[in-house]
Amino acid sequence: MAAVTDMDSPTPAPAAATGPGRRSSLFLRRPFFTIALLATLAYVGAAVFAPWVAPYDPVQQSIDAMMAPPGPAHWLGTDSYGQDILSRIIYGARYALVIGLCSVLIGAAGGLVIGLAAGLAGGWVEWALMRVIDSILALPSLIMAVAFIAILGQGVDKVVIAVGLSMIGPFARTVRADVMQVRVQLYIEAARLMSIPRWQVIARHVLPNVVFPLAVQVTIRISEAILVSSSLSFLGIGVTPPTPDWGLMIAEGRGFVAFAPWMSAMPGLALALLLIALSILGDGIREEYDPKLRGGS
Amino acid sequence: MILRGLVRIGQTLVVLLIVSFATFGLLKLAPGDPVQLALGAEYSETAYRSLQREMGLDQPFLVQYLAWARDFATGDWGRSYVARTDIFTFAVLEALPVTLTLASLSLFFAILIGVPLGVLSAVKKDSIFDAGAAVFALTGTAFPSFLLGILLIWLFGVKLGLFPVMGYVSPWQDPVTGLYHMVLPALTLSTYFIAMITRLTRATLIEVLEQPYIAAARARGEPRWRVIWVHGVRNIAMPLVTILGLQLGTLLQGTVLTETVFSLPGLGQMITDAVLSREYVVVQAGVMLTATLFITINLLVDLSYPFLDPRLRAR
């Protein structure tokens, strides 16, 4: 993989240079990254091929097999309705990944618009927009998502919107920071002196410098979106039953933890492993491409 | 410095204003007519009109907002029909202490365990212990707290029978039983922060230990523990407070989940219950209270920097 160097960063990133000579492949340098990537791909595969991979129908209830412990018939056991947990986890990957991805894209799009406007406008508009961003950031994302759910109601689409809206704040802030860095560059001033129209300067010079870091942020924040959406389901105000959503499954198993701990533990582990894999991926991507963020928050 | 502080306080007030306006406006959009809800299925036109006037709902939006903001500021938050109590008493006097106790106890655990882990990890850099701490730090920050809570309930409550798993006893009334009930919830919530503080302490301390003044302290022949714990760890305070300030939101939303796992009657439980029973007045109060709390603490964190870092005082 070719080294991506920022035109305007004066010094090369210190920690990125691993030893003398050419940089070796990303995958060889970061074995954990590779494992995490493979794990994530496995989840994506499970989500895409769910009907072929899952041994049972995820919402098929069975009185004969209620709360069966993990065994040869049901590898990960069944829940209180006799639904096969493995199948529900496999179908649940669809909900987790789709909700995570869609909501993070809503957040990024909103953040891009507000951040660009704030960074380019200057003056009192910028001040006002910054206070709006501060206000969005003033609420923890889960609390904000809960407030949106209160207005929108429950369901998959509502969760996507609520989680997406609650994520706008951090995106807007990073976009604005990037715009601020770009707008003082010499080439922007040069473009302005050449009396190139403003929108063209924005499209040609500002946007490309903003969109790439934004894409990096998107990949890093998918795990956050998945965590918040499954938290909503866990609280019982997100996706509604009998949707095979992991958060919902964990919540359903909570009351049976004394005699059927697998009901919560299995979907929980599925969620935890995905989050850990995504966070390793995020860390790796951040360190590779975003030297600015290194060491900071 | 005083001027900077005043500007910061001014900004905070503006943010609070926007948040309150948005909270009020958004929940106005919520489906359902409060007048209809209060009157039930059958009512006359005149009864509807008089109750509407009584609730102030015939007034323009801005007037309604101002009235609501005034009531909020004076502690007149209305009544919850589901919980059958005054909302102010319910939120501030009953739920908030539970949430604050849980949050502060978790923070206490996190610093108590996280800082030493991070210091050991930095001092024994690249050892097996360091690798173990790194794995813990990674899993700890990514692991969903509600799952951890359930696993702890299963292990310590069901299998080992060491801790109570449900119910809440106020530590202010009965310290021993109260704290005993709080151990598992606080441990659940603090794991993320222990992991984060371990990571941060390790990274900061490794950098600090390479500074010339550390070499100077060593050259003076000061004992190793003094070099690390006095000259080194003192420099962790600033980044630690910054990060903890930034992560307060995570702590607050963590309390929501932890309260649900352990059935603690805190703010998070209050808001979730209100969402489920569609009691928007309570949601509004809960969200405003959380936001006010979060914004105020962030302001305090910001204003505390000059006291933590003498270099900032000169400006």
Automatic annotation (TrEMBL), chain A:
Keywords: Cell membrane, Membrane, Transmembrane, Transmembrane helix, Transport. Coiled coil: none annotated. GO terms for cellular component: plasma membrane. Belongs to the binding-protein-dependent transport system permease family. It is a multi-pass membrane protein. This is Peptide/nickel transport system permease protein/glutathione transport system permease protein. InterPro entries: BP-dependent_transpt_permease, MetI-like, MetI-like_sf, OppC_N. The chain crosses the membrane at residues 32-54, 95-120, 132-153, 222-239, 259-282. The keyword Ribosomal protein does not apply. It comes from Palleronia aestuarii. Gene3D superfamilies: MetI-like (1.10.3720.10). One of its GO terms (biological process) is transmembrane transport. It is found in: Cell membrane. It holds the Pfam family BPD_transp_1. The keyword Transport applies. Residues 1-21 are annotated as: Disordered. Residues 93-282 form the ABC transmembrane type-1 domain.
UniProtKB/TrEMBL annotation, chain B:
GO terms for molecular function: dipeptide transmembrane transporter activity. It comes from the Bacteria. One of its GO terms (cellular component) is plasma membrane. InterPro entries: BPD_transp_1_N (IPR045621), MetI-like (IPR000515), MetI-like_sf (IPR035906). Keywords: Cell membrane, Membrane, Transmembrane, Transmembrane helix, Transport. It is found in: Cell membrane. Residues 96-301 form the ABC transmembrane type-1 domain. It is a multi-pass membrane protein. The keyword Translocase does not apply. Signal peptide: none annotated. Belongs to the binding-protein-dependent transport system permease family. PANTHER family: DIPEPTIDE TRANSPORT SYSTEM PERMEASE PROTEIN DPPB-RELATED (PTHR43163:SF6). This is Peptide/nickel transport system permease protein. The lineage of its organism: Bacteria, Pseudomonadati, Pseudomonadota, Alphaproteobacteria, Rhodobacterales.
